Amino acid sequence: MVGSLVERETITGGGDGQVSDGGGRNDIGAAAPIRLGVMGCASVAKRRVLPAVTAAQGIYLGAVASRTLSKAAEMVEHFGGEPVHGYQSLLERSDVDAVYIPLPPALRAEWITNALLAGKHVLAEKPLTTSAKETAELVELAEKRRLVMMENFMFPQHSLHATVRRLLSEGTIGTLRGFASTFAIPERAKDDIRYRAELGGGALLDVGGYPLRAAQIFLGHGLEVQGASLWQDNELGVDVNGAALLVGSQGVAAQLSFGLAHAYTSQYRFIGSTGRLAVDHVFTTPPWHQPVVRLARQDQREQLTLPADNHFVNSVELFADAIHGRSTLDSDVVIEQARLIDDIRSRAESA
Questions:
Q1: pLDDT above 80 (res 249)
Q2: DSSP-assigned beta bridge partners for residue 195
Q3: What pLDDT, in 10s, does the model give residues 213-242?
Q4: What's the longest Cα–Cα distance across the chain?
Q5: Who is most buried in 10, 42, 58, 318, counting CB within 10 A?
């Protein structure tokens, strides 16, 4: 089984807030709040991350950069900070300790590299890159520069998942035999970036990573892809529907499905030797939502209503804690995630 969610969710080159001599920055004081810069004005930044930064402890928004200065100015009117014209200008600022990068997947590797070379800690949207090779190279660079780099899967920081892991470890449904998870969203407008192949679009990279990360959380290291399918929309040029079968080191199978043209579905299911466990709305859980764990054992049915939690704020605070060295972090989950995504695509293409 995996370690704590904190250990499994971020990657770092030491987590002590220090950089190499070439980084051009001094250490961040232990009590000093992290000064965050944002690279781009993506929807996820406006809807999820910047509201979380505003509510989080130990970090604040210092600047927003855009290729169009008016867009940056509009963003800071809502969330604070200073507007900056151009991404490189943001990286050259001495009053920015870390950057959040919500650029499209195909652009992330370049700008994550630039940020690390500029001595900035990095919070980047998922996936970090579009290939396992590029991801491994970024992990190595972050470690060499002694900088924190976090792939922004936020859902693992919800307390729901720790509760589910505890229930499983206590044998609530007996010995775990199988895991299934789905994340699918309704169709978007044809010009949505999810449908642009040149920007790293497609269901596997956009939504497929969620059930895959959940499988890592609950089944641990050592997952291997046994089969996969990706259905490509020839007009759009990207995959819009997919599924994968993986098996963990203990022989437990994981059946994953994902898509970009579906009724909204966000769930996982477990089957054990003596019962079943199921939860809906597990990946984009609103801060006010109280998750319900449904248990079925023989003729017994039980529902556990859990407290609401804000995994958006939790993730931002985790990033700040990692920079200050207050969290123990692990890079293996990010590297394995990228490898498994590559393997799913390879299996599907060879089928």
A1: yes
A2: none
A3: 999 999 999 999 999 999 999 999 999 999
A4: 65
A5: 10
Q: Domains in the chain and their CATH numbers?
A: 34-152 (3.40.50.720), 156-309 (3.30.360.10)
**Residue 126 known to be catalytic:** yes
274, amino acid identity: T
Residue 327 contacts residue 15 (beta carbons within 8 Å): yes
Whether residue 166 is predicted with pLDDT greater than 60 in this model: the reply is yes
CA distance 15 to 149: 9
Query: In this structure, are strands 265-272 and 253-259 parallel, antiparallel, or unpaired?
Result: unpaired
Query: Does pLDDT of 26 surpass 80?
Result: no
Can you point out the beta strands (E) in the chain? 11-12, 34-39, 59-66, 82-85, 98-101, 121-124, 148-151, 176-184, 224-233, 238-247, 253-259, 265-272, 276-280, 292-297, 300-305
DSSP string, 216-276: HHHH-S--EEEEEEEEEETTTTEEEEEEEEEE-TTS-EEEEEEESSSS-EEEEEEEESS-E
Planar angle of CA 73, 93, 135, nearest 5 degrees: 95
Name residue 18's amino acid: Q
Q: What is the pTM of this model?
A: 0.91
Distance CA 170, CA 199 (A): 44
Residues 6+ apart with CB under 8 A from 15: 148, 322, 323, 325, 327, 328, 329
- Would you state the torsion angle of the CA atoms of residues 168, 171, 176, 181, taken in this order, to the nearest 10 degrees? -30
